[in-house]
Amino acid sequence: NFGVDLSFCCFLRFDEIKEGDVVRHDGKRSDGYLEHIFKHAAKELFGMDVKEITYKALKNKDFQEVTLEKDGETVLRFAAAYGFRNIQNMVLKLKKGKFLYHFVEVLACPGGKNSCQAQTEDGKPDKALLNQMEEVYAAIPVRLPETNMHVQKMYQDWLEGMDSKKVQETLHTKYSAVNQTASNLDIKW
After folding, report:
1. Is the pLDDT score of 82 beyond 80?
2. Of residues 141 and 100, which shows the higher confidence score?
3. Is residue 104 helix, strand or coil?
4. Rounded to the nearest 5 degrees, what angle is found at the Cα of 19, between the Cα atoms of 17 and 24?
């Protein structure tokens, strides 16, 4: 028990969903939370309305960076790390204190989530299926979470309002420095 009351799920009945009820977040693919969070952070933190973001491939196509500049200074730095090789490199850089990103979208599948789902039975990528999946996903209407009635209802019924103490305790994290001690739990990559 993690102290989470899931009774709010009672109003999210999947058997009552109609065709027009299915929506997606603002991102080009199903793994594109980075895009939504980046645009939202730019608007909320810096008053900038970002319409399109540009991914810059760094070491390979599965490790990309997105930055926001204001007055010649980089104010937001996000990364997308897909595949175990990139996750491993990210963890090593984190340990060395050389990974300076505000947000990182991490997925085990190289190429992101859709490329893991678009595979043949022998585990090889099926580019035609991947393209078809991306087209279907792109056709689903976008609805920002803050305008979604189900999200608003969850905030009201379960979280006691947008700025409640329960929101802070449930959805926000706090950084706490951890003392470095040697243990058998240390990961050696």
Report:
1. yes
2. 100
3. strand
4. 85
Each residue's pLDDT tens digit, 148-163: 787 888 888 888 988 8
Pair 48, 70: CB distance under 8 Å = yes
Q: Where are the alpha helices (DSSP H) in the chain?
A: 33-46, 84-96, 113-117, 127-139, 149-157, 165-171
Q: What mean pLDDT do residues 140-146 have?
A: 77
Query: Contact at 8 Å (CB) between 108 and 87?
Result: yes
Strand order across the beta sheet in which 73-82 lies: 56-60, 63-70, 73-82, 103-107
Neighbour tally for 146: CB within 10 Å: 10
| Alpha carbon distance 22, 36 (integer Å) | 17
Half-sphere exposure of 183 (CA within 13 A, CB side): 5
What's the pLDDT band for 4 if we cut at 50, 70, 90? Answer: very low
Angle at 144 between CA 173 and CA 64, to 5 degrees: 65
Q: Name the amino acid, one letter, at 14.
A: F
Torsion sign, CA atoms 120, 106, 94, 186: negative
Split at pLDDT 50, 70, 90, the class of 186 is low
| Residue whose entry in the numeric block shows the structure tokens 């028990």 | 1
Closest CA to 38 of 82, 12, 81, 68: 68
Token pair in block for residue 42: 């730019």
